[in-house]
């Protein structure tokens, strides 16, 4: 029997069919992207469930192997809403750098520290925007599966491919070294707290500090004291047992080696995907740190005195020549340039990428600014000097501080679950490039992991300064991925299109020079 079909219905059906076709094509591209990362035998980074259409849930998957299950945030076809995209970028950028921001502000001066956080946030955001646009400026039919290293290879050939690999390894290994130093620190303080609590030992730190229930200490002022753990028992407990514990539980001599027994076997696993389930702890840790900072500031009050260029016993100048140490830390703190294309490619509305990226950077900068300003402003000066602010601000709270103990537990467990993922990525990137296989043999993997773990143990033993490690690695990998490659690629693409102007040339050469100066200054100051 004949029936009448309205033209509008035909259009609607055609639109639905086209939408399904587009989504299927996008899904296939995502599956192809994940399949490129590892050989078929390794399922750690093969197409995960979240790239398939799901009506009620989405798994957000970041390049560092982190996974989040977010309910009711998709359009039913595996696309992320802007809110999820912003959260992904914020969560990926928030890392160990947050612990060193107050120290960086102390090195730069309070006022210049605030200005530098703003300027570095704007500059790194612009360079990140150039990274996102770099793939779109390549005159090829399909670059949807390309990452920024692929773009570097297109413009600079094998040099771009291998140099991007080198600087990516610097960022990964640098992060793993920082993790090892911090895990040693957190494990040491956690073990010390538990031992003293179980054995009912009262310990008074010989480290200078404030009195009262909200004690703040200055470990750097007691660096020349002979006791290894800078503490001395004055009441109940077995002195011999306590001294034996002090000998075998040393932050730099023994604890870094104890971590080896736990983490080295985990690094050799073919697939570390199990640890991705615990990544939510990273978000919880950051939220708890913000809560801790707020509570401590409420109890300690504000202690500020503005001395613009002169230094006194308790306060630092507002502007200091050591400010590049903060810019080095901030380069890594705002570093997401080597994986931002991956994070944005599944955004439901691609036209909102610039807006969502800008909002995410604003939230990251706001978090860094809040923690840095609050810790610096509330640090009790007098009686302590602002110079006492440690490279890890948790070190300014004694091991028996309950809130700091909880923070260390959170961070320790979270880092122990992320560390195998970082090692897996380092293995995939390096061994796949050199041998064509991410797991050529147990011997190859073991040698690589021993080198990475050895670097972490050595740093924890001889140079346990996370601020220094962060600023060196940040300035090094940032030189390539933040300053040089995005600017050069943009200028080359404009030149090939005949659109390069003198203002654009001068601005981007200046950005490259800033990155070079940032790296050189780390070794001079």
Alpha plus pi helix count:
15
Q: Estimate nothing, just give the exact number of structural domains.
A: 2
Q: What's the CATH architecture name of the largest domain?
A: Up-down Bundle
Shape: globular
Order of helices and strands: HEEHHHHEEHHHHHHHHHH
- Percentage of residues in DSSP E strands: under 5%
Strand order within the widest beta sheet: 1-2
**CATH level 1 class label of the largest domain:** Mainly Alpha
Membrane topology: Multi-pass membrane protein
Keywords: Amino-acid transport, Disulfide bond, Endosome, Glycoprotein, Lysosome, Membrane, Metal-binding, Sodium, Transmembrane, Transmembrane helix, Transport
Transmembrane segments: 83-103, 109-129, 162-182, 281-302, 322-344, 356-377, 402-422, 442-463, 469-492, 504-524
Pfam family, one: Aa_trans
């Amino acid at each position: 029997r004949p029936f009448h079909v309205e033209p509008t219905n035909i259009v609607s059906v055609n639109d639905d069919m086209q939408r399904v076709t587009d989504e299927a094509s996008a899904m296939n591209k995502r599956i192809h992207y994940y399949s490129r990362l590892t050989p078929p035998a390794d399922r750690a980074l093969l197409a995960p469930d979240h790239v398939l259409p799901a009506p009620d849930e989405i798994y957000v998957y970041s390049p560092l192997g982190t996974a989040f299950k977010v309910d009711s945030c998709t359009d039913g076809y595996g696309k992320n809403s802007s809110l999820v995209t912003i959260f992904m970028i914020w969560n990926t950028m928030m890392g160990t750098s947050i612990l060193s921001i107050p120290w960086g502000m102390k090195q730069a001066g309070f006022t210049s520290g605030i200005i530098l956080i703003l300027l570095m946030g704007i500059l790194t955001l612009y360079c990140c925007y150039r990274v996102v646009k770099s793939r779109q400026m390549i005159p090829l039919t399909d670059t949807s599966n390309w990452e920024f290293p692929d773009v570097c290879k297109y413009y600079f050939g094998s040099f771009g491919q291998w140099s991007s690999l080198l600087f990516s390894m610097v960022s990964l290994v640098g992060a793993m070294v920082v993790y090892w130093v911090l895990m040693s620190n957190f494990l040491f303080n956690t073990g010390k707290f538990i031992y003293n609590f179980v054995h009912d030992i009262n310990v008074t730190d010989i480290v200078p500090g404030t009195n009262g229930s909200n004690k703040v200490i200055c470990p750097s002022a007691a660096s020349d004291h002979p006791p290894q753990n800078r503490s001395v028992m004055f009441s109940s407990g077995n002195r011999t047992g306590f001294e034996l514990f002090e000998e075998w539980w040393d932050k730099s001599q023994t604890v870094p080696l104890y971590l080896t027994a736990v983490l080295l076997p985990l690094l050799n696993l073919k697939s570390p995907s199990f640890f991705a389930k615990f990544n939510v702890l990273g978000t919880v840790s950051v939220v708890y740190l913000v809560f801790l900072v707020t509570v401590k500031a409420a109890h300690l009050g504000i202690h500020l005195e503005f001395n613009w260029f002169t230094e006194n016993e308790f306060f630092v100048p507002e502007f200091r020549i050591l400010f590049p140490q903060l810019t080095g830390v901030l380069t890594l703190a705002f570093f997401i340039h080597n994986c931002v294309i991956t994070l944005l490619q599944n955004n439901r509305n691609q036209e909102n990428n610039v807006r969502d990226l800008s909002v995410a950077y604003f939230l990251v900068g706001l978090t860094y600014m809040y923690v840095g300003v609050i810790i610096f402003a509330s640090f009790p000066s007098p009686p302590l000097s602002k110079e006492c602010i440690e490279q890890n601000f948790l070190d300014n709270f004694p091991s028996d501080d309950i809130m700091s103990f909880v923070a260390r537990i959170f961070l320790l467990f979270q880092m122990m679950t992320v560390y195998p993922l970082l090692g897996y990525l380092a293995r995939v990137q390096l061994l796949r490039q050199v041998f064509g296989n991410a797991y050529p043999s147990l011997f190859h993997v073991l040698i690589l992991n021993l080198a990475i773990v050895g670097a972490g143990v050595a740093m924890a033993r001889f140079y346990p300064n996370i601020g220094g490690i962060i600023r060196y690695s940040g300035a090094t990998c940032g030189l390539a991925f933040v300053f040089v490659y995005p600017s050069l690629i943009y200028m080359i693409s404009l030149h090939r299109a005949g659109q390069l102007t003198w203002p654009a040339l001068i601005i981007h050469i200046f950005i490259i020079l800033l990155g070079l100066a940032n790296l050189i200054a780390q070794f001079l100051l």
